[in-house]
Amino acid sequence: MQKRLNSEYVDLIEKSGRFYYILNDKGISKIKELYLYNSSDDEVADYLKIPYNTLINNNNKKAFIKAKEDGISECKFQLRKIQMSHAKRNPSMAIFLGRELLSQERANEESKRQEEALNNISEKLLNFCNAKKKRGDGNGK
């Protein structure tokens, strides 16, 4: 016997003697809101009082993923907005938020990587040319 869920965020539908829980509009809206606050999947499921497997089953997967993506996108947008408004007053907080939550890197780190790659290529080319010179000098004697 299947356990009945007591959640206002799903509707119970019965088909051929089986019960299916379908996310309703209130549930979808709440999922967006929870992911706006950077909640984890487990936190969302716990808050809704719905097993995570029910959220990602064939009946709910598309709606759940769409609501999750919308919430995460809104979260990132809000963080960027806050980051920009606080950048003048507290640059270290803006940098921290950018690195941790928006996957932003320092321009220095990227240019440093590029410089190291160019140095490696230059060094290999120089070694190649020197080796070729030695072979050429040795053959000419």
Supply database-style keywords:
about 140 residues; single chain; two-stranded antiparallel sheet; 6 helices; elongated; mainly alpha
Structural class per helix/strand content?
Answer: mainly alpha
Mean pLDDT: 83
Strand order of the largest sheet: 1-2
For the biggest sheet, the summary is: 2 strands, antiparallel
**What letter string, H or E per element, gives the SSE order?**
EEHHHHHH
Q: Quickly count the helices.
A: 6
Q: Strand content of the residues, in percent? A: 5-15%
Helix coverage percent: 55-70%
Shape annotation: elongated
Per DSSP E runs of 2 or more residues, the count of β-strands stands at 2
Computed over alpha carbons, the radius of gyration is: 28 Å
N-to-C CA distance? 93 Å
State the low-pLDDT regions, or none: none
Commentary on this structure:
With 141 residues, the chain is mainly alpha-helical. Helix content is 68%, strand content 9%. It contains six helices and two strands, in the order ββαααααα. The chain has helices at residues 25-36, 41-48, 52-55, 61-86, 91-102, 107-140; strands spanning 10-15, 18-23. It has a two-stranded antiparallel sheet with strand order 1-2. A hairpin with a 2-residue loop joins strand 1 (10-15) and strand 2 (18-23). Helix 1 packs parallel to helix 4 and helix 4 packs antiparallel against helix 5.
Short summary:
This protein has 141 residues and is mainly α.
Indicate the topology.
Elements (H helix, E strand, L loop, with lengths): L9 E6 L2 E6 L1 H12 L4 H8 L3 H4 L5 H26 L4 H12 L4 H34 L1
Antiparallel strand pairs: 1-2
Helix pairs in contact: 1-4, 4-5
